[in-house]
Write a structure and sequence with these properties.
The chain is α/β, with parallel strands linked by helices and 387 residues long. 40% of the residues lie in helices and 14% in strands. Strands 1, 2, 3, 4, 5, 6, 7, 8, 9 and 10 form a ten-stranded mixed β-sheet that branches. The protein binds spermidine. The site of spermidine has 13 residues, from helix 12 and strand 10.
Length: 387
């Protein structure tokens, strides 16, 4: 078994518990799918429209256009920046979206709250391409894998512009634990000059802060959030940005150190190179571990185009398309059939497909109660306001 397949096989054992932003459809580029791919759309009587709500920078260029061309279905593709934003839309109802892509941390309560509908698996034969190991992991949030299909997975970590960080630290060596760069005043007081950015979301920041202070990252106890807030308040003055445009902020030089997502930091590294920057940007692997996430496609309970949704999910699950996502967006796929189509430089990047030793150190996703999320949001907002 190769190393990245092994990563998820291992995870099945390790994982214990587990305003609408309009964007035009992805520009047309060379269509991705293989010529031998099966027809995407079974005959159905739905209007030929599909409304998708996904994270930014997650779909390869040309993939939506290729689906539209092949299926005749017009896709309206919008993006959201946080799980909280997606969740609020689903709770409000009538979102208008057919497919949404929550992280499992939120998908679990969304399934329990009846906000997502079970998949019609008879219309998605390419489910057979998925890695059973990741489906076992997803079953912690979605018993019997009735609702969720993996889009990608990755981890929340520290991303740096190494060139700028080394300059700002001067004689001070890099810490052994990379989380110190964003949470320890000795470091943040030096790095604030080149820019510290945090993801702008309670359920992104409080869990990593809890992990840093030695608590359960998925604690539901408000007393733990208070402790996280106390630690965070010591570095608040040094944080320049609460960012929902992290790729641009890192690649464009607004931030030299960030709490961000592994793939996005790697995208920022690529963009900086394209822009001829000599600075080295990298995602770090903190010695105490990073937080794993899994983002999943699901069909909303009130989807008007569930058959078109199934057609798209099946299209995305073709090995060629799942591999294209990994190759272009720098996130690991949960599609086993795609693995031999991943480019060697992506498969060999230890901050994309982490090695098994490091994987064992990472923190698996779990979820929060509704009450805990509210308490967490309060703790986060008071930290952000500097209270
Ligand atoms: N560019 C795509 C980013 C997707 C991030 N999803 C992360 C969820 C982590 N909780």
């Amino acid at each position: 078994m190769n190393k990245y397949l092994w990563s998820f096989a291992l995870s099945a054992v390790v994982l214990a518990g587990c305003g609408k932003k309009e964007e035009p459809p992805a520009p047309v580029a060379a269509p991705a799918p293989a010529a031998s791919a099966p027809a995407a759309v079974a005959v159905n009587s739905e209007e030929k429209i599909l409304n998708i709500y996904n994270w930014p920078d997650y779909v390869p260029e040309g993939m939506i256009a290729a689906f539209e061309k092949e299926s005749g279905i017009k896709v309206n593709y919008d993006t959201f920046e946080t799980n909280e934003a997606l969740h609020a839309k689903l709770v409000a109802g009538n979102s208008g979206y057919d497919i949404v892509v929550p992280g499992t941390v939120f998908a679990k309560p969304q399934i329990e709250g009846g906000l997502l509908q079970p998949l019609d698996k008879s219309k998605i034969p390419n489910l057979a391409n998925l890695d059973p190991a990741i489906m076992t992991v997803l079953a912690k949030a979605d018993p019997d894998n009735k609702h969720l299909v993996p889009w990608a997975w990755g981890f929340t970590t520290v991303g740096i512009n190494k060139t700028k960080v080394e300059k700002a630290l001067g004689k001070m060596p890099m810490p052994e634990n990379a989380w110190d760069l964003v949470f320890k005043p000795e470091y943040t007081s030096k790095l604030k000059s080149c820019g510290i950015a945090y993801l702008d979301s309670p359920t992104e920041i409080i869990p990593v802060a809890l992990h840093y202070i030695g608590k359960d990252a998925y604690s539901n106890d408000p007393a733990d959030y208070k402790a996280a807030n106390e630690m965070l308040s010591k570095v608040r003055k040094d944080v320049r940005l609460f960012s929902s445009t992290m790729i641009d902020d890192i690649a464009g030089g607004k931030a030299c150190v960030a709490i961000g997502w592994s793939g996005d930091v790697n995208i920022a590294a690529g963009r900086a190179k394209e822009n001829k920057s000599k600075d080295v940007i990298e995602a770090l692997l903190p010695s105490t571990g990073a937080l794993i996430f899994a983002d999943t496609m699901a069909v909303t309970k009130d989807a008007k185009h569930p058959n078109n949704a199934a057609a798209f999910i099946d299209f995305y699950l073709r090995a060629e398309n799942a591999a294209l996502m990994s190759n272009e967006m720098n996130y690991p796929t949960g599609n086993k059939a795609a693995m031999d189509k991943i480019k060697p430089e992506i498969a060999g990047n230890k901050t994309i497909f982490v090695e098994s030793d490091y994987f064992a150190k990472m923190i698996p996703p779990s979820s929060f109660t509704n009450e805990a999320r509210e308490a967490m949001a309060n703790a986060y907002n008071s930290f952000k306001k500097g209270k």
